[in-house]
Amino acid sequence: MTIAARRDPAGVERVLRSLPQWFGIEEAIQQYIRDAADLAYESLTAWSGDRCVGVALIRRHYPETGELHLLAVHAAYRRTGVGQRLVRRAASDLISTGAQLFSVHTVGPSYQDTGYAQTRDFYASMGFVPLEEHQGLDWTGPTLILVKPLR
Q1: Chain centroid to CA 108
Q2: Are 142 and 134 in contact (CB under 8 A)?
Q3: What is the DSSP code (8-state) at residue 148?
Q4: Are the C-beta atoms of residues 110 and 120 closer than 8 Å to each other?
Q5: Residue 15 in contact with residue 53, Cβ under 8 Å?
Q6: Rounded to an integer, what distance in angstroms lies between the CA atom of residue 45 and that of residue 133?
Q7: pLDDT of the chain along its 151 residues, tens only?
Q8: What residues contact residue 39 under an 8 Å CB cut-off, 6+ apart?
């Protein structure tokens, strides 16, 4: 498994389409594919041979912070450490440029969903802590903002 600072919108589409429980809205999938090609986002991709099996898109709003805009691992590679490696590499890259905080948005706990409970548990295991939950921020339901201090 290799993690590379590389763009692969077609690979991102394959990854997202393998995860309909998390990425089932066509408009959102199309936006993430566009984001994967957009130079406003830093792109890290995980590769198994010549196949993209994971992606992390990072947005730098300020020099001191980075937002994990997208993290997705192909269904066949979930729970194999790919997501952990992508988050660790993203955090390391942010630290190397002087960033102090890393944030991520996900579906909040007031919306009961087993898949998103797993997502929140994953982020907690990676050192992200809940900051606040907002209604209607990224979608019509609750969005949880989590942050990870970078040292």
Answers
A1: 15
A2: yes
A3: E
A4: no
A5: yes
A6: 29
A7: 999 999 999 999 999 999 999 999 999 999 999 999 999 999 999 999 999 999 999 999 999 999 999 999 999 999 999 999 999 999 999 999 999 999 999 999 999 999 999 999 999 999 999 999 999 888 888 999 999 999 8
A8: none
